[in-house]
Structure prediction request, 115 residues.
Amino acid sequence: MTPLQRQKFKDIIESELTLLKIEIAATEEDSKPTITPDSAIGRISRVEAIQSRHIGEASVRARKARAMQLERALTLVDKEEYGLCVACEEPIPLARLRLIPEATLCVICAASLEA
Prediction:
């Protein structure tokens, strides 16, 4: 991978991290409980509110996990191992890295793990 390509991936990672942090903050705010236990609402409404909060919390957890992966990728982007599959040590296709800059597996190795 050329230094210019590395810089482009660094820019992509930083951009995605910034966006993700904004989304995390917004989702955390949205998933705060809005209905107190002593509120006089119907049981269905309470269940819907609880489910909505759980979905929001799961979304925050997933975004935080991805943010950690992106931060790790940001520390590796200038190193030789960035862009190499950790399983087979072959280069990860650039198109895959553009879509998933935190990818550590090539398509073949990732597919074999899912099977």
In short: The domain at 3-114 is CATH 1.20.120.910 (Four Helix Bundle (Hemerythrin (Met), subunit A)).
